[in-house]
UniProtKB/TrEMBL annotation:
GO terms for cellular component: plasma membrane. SUPFAM superfamilies: ATPase domain of HSP90 chaperone/DNA topoisomerase II/histidine kinase, Homodimeric domain of signal transducing histidine kinase. Residues 202-420 form the Histidine kinase domain. One of its GO terms (molecular function) is phosphorelay sensor kinase activity. This is histidine kinase. It comes from hydrothermal vent metagenome. Keywords: Kinase, Membrane, Phosphoprotein, Transferase, Transmembrane, Transmembrane helix, Two-component regulatory system. Its EC number is 2.7.13.3. It catalyses: ATP + protein L-histidine = ADP + protein N-phospho-L-histidine. GO terms for biological process: cellular response to phosphate starvation.
Amino acid sequence: MKYWLRKYVVVFTLILVLGLLFIQVRWIIYSINFQEKVFHNSINLALNQTIANLTKNKKMCNIMKQSVGCDTTLNQQMLASGIWDQLHESIDNELKSYGIGLEYDLYIITNEKDTILRGSLDKVIKKGVCYTQSLRQVIQEAGYDLVVSFPSRTKFFFDRVGLMFLSSVALILMIIGSVFYLLKLYKEELILAEHTKELINNVSHEFKTPISSISLASNMIRKERYNTNEKLQEYATLIFKENKKLQRQVESLLHLAAIERNEFEYEKEKIDINIIIEDAISTIEMLLFEKGGTLKTSFKATVNEVFADKLHLTNTIVNLLSNAIKYSGGEPDILVSTADAGENISISVADKGIGIQSKYLKYIFDKYYRVPTGDIHNIKGFGIGLSYVKKVISAHKGEVKVESISGEGSIFTILLPVQES
């Protein structure tokens, strides 16, 4: 994934997490507000029903009428008669019918805020939120209210949303902690990846000088005037061949690193794809000969010219041909073909080698990925070839596909636009 794309993914993820946290907090607030409305409505309905019950009780109405405005003695008579207990019982039943089992204090208040029974209104207010209902229907006189207060009202909300609230808070804290931890890991991975790239870059550059020296020396040994010793010629040829292979790997590694850092510019020009394929074939001819393989071509595309970087497109096809030889499982049998594909030209490299299991196909273009071969270690490579192919073709606005059957072979197909988009 490109660096700029990774940054956008991180920013987008943070926005999603913040959005999730915002929704979670809003949901908690909404739940508390909703439960508070339910509580208020339930209390008011319970008080209304209590007043309705009082109105139907003639005895209770008469005693309360006699008690209103009287001294403490009459108030004590009201208590002694059991009216106050009946009033409590009526309110208890109504509250329980709405699922409210909280303790409460009960008062009767005048307009002058003088408490007829049990304490003063100031103390009521200090104890908690008050709920008031007029007693006019009961005592046939205005100015008297039934007041209920709930000192432990918070318990009701905690019972209803407490567990949900604590779970949400715990979830939010875990999400925040996870995000910070992931950001820390991401930062560490970025630093490690950057150091790894620098190391590979430095090592690759260090390899270039000895590779050039070995190439020069092996070429001199292979020249005709030194060709008197057959054994020496054989060793020189081996050195030259292995040096070329190492040189291709180092160049691919450097090019891949440059592409990933967006430091590489392609030198595109109009080129004949048939010539590019022939050049690539000539590069792997010696390797193909050593394996005793055969390679056929079938150029059926009517338009052969593409706008591309000659060096990198050649290296791309060389990579596909090298893989076809490497994974032949015996004597390579390769077919390279071209065909028209709409506004594209199709370039296919087909082999009859060991093939690739379907479960591995989606990974083969990943950098450094190599298809598992069990305990067999005779297939060499660094796992950068197909990753390089993918990046080069993508940079040319093309596409690379693969079809493979394990044990029967593979077909790699490159689609390139016949003219620059």
